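$ run holo --ligand "beta-D-fucopyranose" --emit tokens
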Amino acid sequence: MPPAPFRPLRFPSDFWWGTASAGHQVEGGNLHSNWWAFEQQGLVNDGSRSGRACDYWNRYPEDHSLMRALGLNSLRLGVEWARIEPAEGRVDASALSHYRSLLEDARANGLRVCLTLHHWVLPLWLAERGGWEWGGALGAWEAHVRRVVGAVGDLVDLFVTLNEPMVPVLAGYLAAYHPPCRRAPLAAARVFEALLRAHAIAYRVVHAERPRGPGGTTALVGFASAYQHVEPYHEGGLLRLAEAPIARLVARGSFGAWDRSVLTGRVAAPFGLGRRIPGLAGSADFVGVNYYMRWSAKLALPRFSNVKSAGSACPPGTELTEMGWQVYPPGLFHVLDLVRRNFGKPIWITENGCADSGDEKRRRYLAAHLAQVHRAIAAGCDVRGFLHWTFTDNFEWREGFEKRFGIIAMDPNDPELRRTPKQSAFLLRDVARANALDADAVARHAPGALDPWPLAPGLRIGA
Ligand code: FCB
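-- output --
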């Protein structure tokens, strides 16, 4: 058989190329939030605090112009509720107008905007009243969403209502790893239901308040979930058969129950008994896929050392990131295909990236995952964009500043907080400019990165 032809891996026209961040991780000074309070108690693993973070709050013009110089055409970012409503019912209008200036600046730099309305962090006053378990939380949330959409909605193309809603449920209420650090299954179920309601409310409010986006387009509203590729640890045999139901259960708990609830409009097991939630069924114009890793299900008691990796077993020879997460690019292909089959809606990759204090692994990770996005598109997935996690190295929650996910180096101890592009930034630049991943870019930035994994049928990349 003659070798498959070499062709660049081309992406659809108008594809979104950009990076993703969250307010608390980059802005700095999110003083009135529950995470800020958590950090002051010294509970972050490396003892660090978000502090001024990347000072994105003030340095956004520099960051946006750097994004533009790198040929990026879009940006995912979040607003912080605790800044906008630092005390119950007290709205800080200057915070809203600051967000407006920031988003105007993004647009002036040619960046399309995906805005996350909630990325885990709550105002401290609300957390002290019981967070999402408090009876008044949903009313306060609805008012907050209305405010944000009124203030900046015309500058936003895509709204993510909630980022990874299962993380607060699992890490906050079962694993006691994120605030409020509880192990309370009944509370977890209540929070799960409250977050479904919060999502449905935001979906309705955004559409009601602002039916048109920039350029007269209709705003799309969805959620972003953490999807892992979950599969049995063993490659075959009886053990694989025995592990298959565990894998299904883990996937169900991690993202499946949420998806099922949104699809059916009813609170799915194991977090609920099918109670109907008004406005929930089908409340996703698109799905935001955050993909980082494979999980391998093994017949063993799970260790919950790090909720994000769920203490999963790791097949020998598997590469890990500095988070201890399995590198498995084809998992992104499988996840995209699963989301396509379940939802049949457009998909944005709202996060994908790699903790690496060097940058070589990140480049290989990026190139290999982009090839899987291309493969999924060739197989019929309507993927509209890729937002790399993240732009600058930033505050990685419980892992503090130690874990570096950025394509732009930034040292939190540098008084100037200088931004220095890493080589991975140039890889993303070359891909964004060409709207394709070609052999030349792979050879220059990530040689051999695609070799171990399947590509779209009939393609090969390389010399
Ligand atoms: C995701 C979070 C994001 C960041 C990355 C590394 O789970 O949404 O804020 O922490 O992991």
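-- notes --
The radius of gyration is 21 Å.
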